[in-house]
TrEMBL record:
Signal peptide: none annotated. Gene3D superfamilies: DNA Methylase, subunit A, domain 2, Vaccinia Virus protein VP39. It comes from Natronoarchaeum philippinense. Keywords: Methyltransferase, S-adenosyl-L-methionine, Transferase. This is DNA (cytosine-5-)-methyltransferase. GO terms for molecular function: DNA (cytosine-5-)-methyltransferase activity; DNA binding. GO terms for biological process: methylation; negative regulation of gene expression via chromosomal CpG island methylation.
Length: 452
């Protein structure tokens, strides 16, 4: 651990998307925990710290070799299915259960228990957008209750906690931070050291396109070939920081780039059935070098001329029957079918249970939200120009995992881990903002990072 690195732990860590982003922002993750046994090979293959498999409700906080209050950050995303609309509908369909009685929505209390134990200077808690509309058994808004508990103004169940944190809650779309995917998540940022919590609106790097041309793939350009004229802003001033590499997170940047799209994210990856095999399955070598700015970053190879020597990991999709492949061909670019609209004889699901869609991803827009349901089928994530569902690597690209991030588990487990993760780029933006504003450690104090 160096003086520049701040310390963190990652609760409900999964594959480690949050750990990865915090690492890229200059934090050193000391420990992680998750209840899914299959996450351990993935986490340990990509992170250099201990990871525990276990039920956090039954785990005591481990000794990190730090004094009380010395840990800088407790981070994590308690899995709370009852706060999501999908989770509520599935729970309510189970005999004898409802979303209020399902105790998984109380896992955030164990997050607070760990915060109380370590008394970190700051915390970062992630959850689903549905928490904003959720109410507890007393009919009070869940978010307001949790904020009161974090401030020490309200008791936490039967726990005797000593919390006194200043808290900010924000709903963020990952596409606004360079992730080629629309994914809205709620973040609680708190600190006990008297600092102002960052307003992430001021840290956004990307925006919706202002015209059709801005939806085109964003080719990476050679900085040496940029003209002086192209570097001038509309105000007539040169902001050379806007020429930084992707991704650079800075507060109050003068201009933001158009959202990264499906094309920016994955269209350099080869077909998974280059010899025409049916069903399509897997490819293990790159056929072309990166083209877009995002693809160069995702390849994570400083010697880009050696791209053909880099192994292509996890570029594998599930097999498809001919009915599915034919249905996929029927879809135009960026279009979808509600399952119930398809003739009964072609239905992939029982329509009384699953109101899902067949969705072909639009290459000119960010991907739709990557979900863990991918481990069961890929009908909502059909490749934009191939008759197949997306691969694990393509899902990982949409989530902003670099190609060097390996998922050394069965394909079904890998899809689930990708879908459950916090996008590393979004985590990096949050970590950078927390590092800069709460801890007063400007990003320049880090070792140089690959910027935006």
């Amino acid at each position: 651990m160096t003086e520049e690195h701040l310390t963190a732990i990652d609760l409900f860590c999964g594959a480690g998307g949050l750990s990865q982003g915090l690492s890229d922002a200059g934090f050193e993750t000391l420990w992680g925990i998750d209840h899914e046994e299959n996450t351990k090979p993935t986490y340990e293959a990509n992170h250099g710290c201990e990871m525990t498999v276990g039920d956090i409700r039954e785990e005591d906080p481990p000794d990190l070799g730090l004094d009380e209050g010395e840990l800088d950050l407790v981070a994590g995303g308690p899995p709370c299915p009852t706060f999501s609309l999908v989770g509520r509908s599935k729970i309510n369909s189970i005999d004898g259960r409802d979303n209020q009685s399902d105790d998984r929505h109380l896992l955030y209390e164990d997050f607070l228990r760990f915060v109380d134990h370590y008394q970190p200077k700051a915390f970062l808690m992630e959850n689903v957008e549905g928490m904003l509309s959720a109410e507890n058994e007393e009919g009070r808004p869940v978010v307001e209750t949790i904020k009161e508990q974090m401030r020490g103004e309200r008791e936490v169940a039967d726990l005797d906690l000593d919390l006194d944190y200043n808290v900010r809650v924000q709903l963020l779309d990952s596409a606004d931070f360079g992730v080629p995917q629309h994914r809205k998540r709620l973040f609680f940022i708190g600190n006990r050291i008297g600092a102002e919590n960052p307003d992430m609106e001021e840290w956004k790097t990307h925006r919706s396109p202002s015209n059709e041309d801005e939806k085109d793939i964003k080719y990476k350009t050679d900085p040496s070939k940029r003209s002086e004229e192209s570097q001038h802003t509309l105000d007539g001033f040169v902001d050379d920081r806007e020429e930084e590499e992707f991704p650079t997170f800075r507060k109050n940047r003068r201009s933001r780039k158009p959202w990264n799209t499906v094309a920016d994210a994955i269209l350099d990856l080869p077909p998974v059935s280059p010899s025409g095999d049916t069903p399509p399955t897997k490819a293990e070598e790159y056929e072309l070098g990166p083209v877009s700015e995002y693809q160069y970053w995702a390849r994570d190879n400083s010697e880009q001329e050696d791209w053909d020597e880099q192994p292509l990991l996890n570029h594998e999709c599930r097999g498809h029957n001919m009915r599915d492949l034919t249905l996929y061909k029927l879809l135009g670019e960026g279009t979808s079918y509600i399952i119930g609209d398809i003739p009964e004889e072609h239905q992939p699901y029982r329509t009384d249970i699953f109101p899902d869609k067949l969705k072909k991803q639009n290459p000119r827009e960010p991907a739709t939200t990557v979900v863990a349901h991918l481990y069961k089928d890929g009908h909502m994530f059909i490749h934009p120009n191939e008759a197949r569902s997306i691969t694990v690597r393509e899902a990982a690209r949409f989530q902003s995992f670099k190609d060097t991030f390996e998922f050394p588990v069965a394909r079904t487990h890998a899809f689930k881990q990708v879908g459950n993760a916090v996008p590393p780029l979004l985590a990096q933006a949050l970590g950078t903002a927390i590092r800069t504003e709460i801890f007063d450690r400007p990003i320049s104090q880090q070792e140089p990072q690959k910027a935006d």
